[in-house]
Amino acid sequence: MAEAGLGSRATAGRRSSELFAEACRVIPGGVDSPVRAFGSVGGSPYFVARAEGAFVEDVDGRRLLDYVQSWGASILGHAHPAVLDAIAAAAARGTTYGAPTEGEVRLAEVITEAVPGCDQVRFVSSGTEAAMSVIRLARAATGRDRVVKFAGCYHGHSDALLAGGGSGVATLGLPDSAGVPASAVSATIVAPYNEVPEIDESVACVIVEPVAANMGLVAPVEGYLEGLRAACDHAGALLIFDEVITGFRVGRAGATGVLGVQPDLWCFGKVIGGGLPLAALGGRRDLMSQLAPIGPVYQAGTLSGNPVATAAGLAVLELLPEEAYAQLAESVGRLAEGLAQAIGQSGLPVEVPVFGTLVSVFFSDEPVRDYQGAARAARSGLYAPFFRAMLARGVALAPSPYEIAFVSLAHSREDIDRTVEAAADAALEVASGVGA
Ligand SMILES: *Cc1c(COP(=O)(O)O)cnc(C)c1O
Predict the structure, then answer these.
(1) pLDDT > 90 fraction of the chain, expressed in percent and rounded
(2) Residues 6+ apart with CB under 8 A from 208
(3) Is 242 marked active-site?
(4) What CATH topology corresponds to 23-45+333-403+412-435?
(5) Is 270 labeled as catalytic in the residue annotation?
(6) Relative to the CA of 167, which ligand 1 atom is closest?
(7) Cβ(426) to ligand 1 under 6 A?
(8) What is the pLDDT of residue 124?
(9) Domain boundary assignment for the chain
(10) Which residue among 21, 98, 106, 351 is buried most deeply as judged by most CB within 10 Å?
């Protein structure tokens, strides 16, 4: 609840507000990633001092039940003791050497064993890098230039993929980004999600979030991924699953395992880094072996696969047996059902899509199946007051209608029930116009 002199309308306490003002002098917009600035929900961000399990504590001493969880990077919850121990032990041996380490081998083994068809991985430091490099690899392997992506899917902020992006690009309402030359996106084709586009022999690859989670949650309709697979095979194009969110979050084999459609190449990130900067591209051996140093596709990184990040990733993946996903899905199902009912009772239009361990909230009276639908829901303008009303009740949702809610294994049944109670209250406030 509101503490430390926090009014029910304010999103940040006094110390956070002071820090934000200082940040704005030395950091553009005060943040290092745009959505953090609260631009689409109003107010200014709370600054986090520490976090543990399902909670973050801000610099004003306010404890918030956290559904951001580093945008899905923290699946065990914050500061899990086993992960902290692994990080401390690795760091004590030196944080980076610029030489290979055993941790890279072990983490690569865990990932390739878990994901069928993914024979090899190459570690990088962000999902952006993974997607950028996997596109280069696909273009080289096919000798073609064109890339097909889908509106509302986000694949990081490399030039060629900053077209029709979800996540922060959608949140800020940017058509795309300034500074991206037309030539950089001239070979990028943006198609609507959940429709199989025409793929011809000029297409190198189709990159897709197999379960879209950067425009809110939009699951693939029946036959969509199978259709993409068939269209790619027919045209000799490669299919890439960007599993930066879904990898090791919807199951050990990711969306590939749950949905049974196998791509040629993958991107992983978030969960596999255990909260440290780590991501990977992966795929079939014949494709991956085209990467330098054995192949002609250049790709590199000073901190790639660094021993602290691989230690954190290994510690997390060790604590994620298949049963953990059943537990997480139960929490998510309970939350989704509770939110749909709590918000629905207030009379607000609401859709709460669920895909196993993933959930989001759309203020919409019809199911959302593509970016147009997600944008229509965002235009209702209801997310911002709902977000603020939840924050005033001690629940931190993502500060954007285009992001999903990340539930961790540290969220207890009690935490979920408290969230639902807060949502019932918050929705009534929004419906009565108080929160507007
Ligand atoms: C977060 C995300 C990325 C980008 O990862 P960064 O580590 O932020 O660069 C790419 N693809 C998807 C699907 C993501 O959710």
Answers:
(1) 91
(2) 149, 150, 153, 193, 225, 228, 239, 240, 241, 242
(3) yes
(4) Aspartate Aminotransferase, domain 1 (3.90.1150)
(5) yes
(6) 15
(7) no
(8) 98
(9) 23-45+333-403+412-435, 81-317
(10) 351
